[in-house]
Structures are given as C-alpha cells and as structure tokens.
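Task card 7
Instruction: Convert sequence to structure tokens.
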Amino acid sequence: MKNLLKFITFSILLVIFTGCNGQVKLTKSEIEREYFTQQNMWASKKSKYSTSQDKDALISKYSVFSVNYLEDKFIPINTSVEIVKVEHNTIFFKLDNEIYAYIRTRQSRGQNLTKLFYRTFSTLGKDLSKYNKIAKKNIQNAVLKQGMTKNEVILSRGYPPEYRTQSLENSTWYYWDKRKNKITLNFNEKKLISINKN
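Output:
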C-alpha cells in the first residue's frame, strides 16, 4: 500500500513538473526560420552547456535569464536571431555567429518555457511605427520614463518577473537592474507615475 501511494505521489509530481516546464516542440523548419526579439533583453557573460550527450551538444557564450537583469550585453528589440535548439528550460539561439542561451529561471516559475518562447521570439518584428517619436526612442534605448504605458514598459524593459509581479493588472511592478538592485514601478489606470530604485 505504501509503495502504491509513493508511486501515485511520484506520478502526480512528474505530471506537475512536466506541465510547468512546458517543453517547446519545434519542427526543423521552425528552428531554421528567422525570429525577432519581442522586447529588449540583456545577456550575461556566462556559459550554458546543453544537456545533450551527442554531437549536437552546445555551449553558449552568453546567457539571457528570463528575469532579465541589466547585465553585460544589450540585445535590442527586433534583433534578428536564429533558434538553434530547445531543451528542458533553455532556448539556444544564434546572434552574430555567437551562441546564446535563454534560460527559464525560478523567478519565472509562473510561466512555462512555451509561453516564454512565444512572448520573447516571433517570426514577425514588433511594429513600433504606432508609437510617437519620444515613446519609440525610449523603447529602442531601453529607457523607463513617467508617462509610459504598461505595453511600452514591457517593450523597453521586458516582462516583470512573475514571482514578485503575479499579474500585469497590478498597479505596482518590480524589476531588477542588477541582482540586488530593485526597481519599483507604480502605475495609475493608464500610465507609469513613479520609478523608485533601491
């Protein structure tokens, strides 16, 4: 009886883990297509090894974490990339002949890898022509300014980490410019009204 309960418990946990991971399954033609980044991102100079034990094993030169710290290398919105491989919690992509790893971290536990993939990469670039000149410049330069809409903030800075901002409907969002430096954004019904760094 105890062994049966252990088996059932293990099976439930396995299903939960697999569902949370949300492995992205792409065909060969999908991997070979050109994709565009859907918001600004930053990459750290940290290598990531793929889990493959075959000739397709990869080592990235840079890592982009889903929490999106402001780190070593800036990757602008609408940057053209090639998806190379997807495995477990990692999306390997190529930019300027260098291998990068986009890594789903524990701070994004509310989003599986499939959701993160499709909100981060698309075969279509983001249309910035609908924004006025100032808003477009702020987005392209990854600048946060009072008066920005939530959508403009996302394009400029990426999505706020889910473990502190559970819903985009919240009036307060949290980011980190470095691993220990928090940025608090406060919105009214339409616009960003304050930016606090601590």
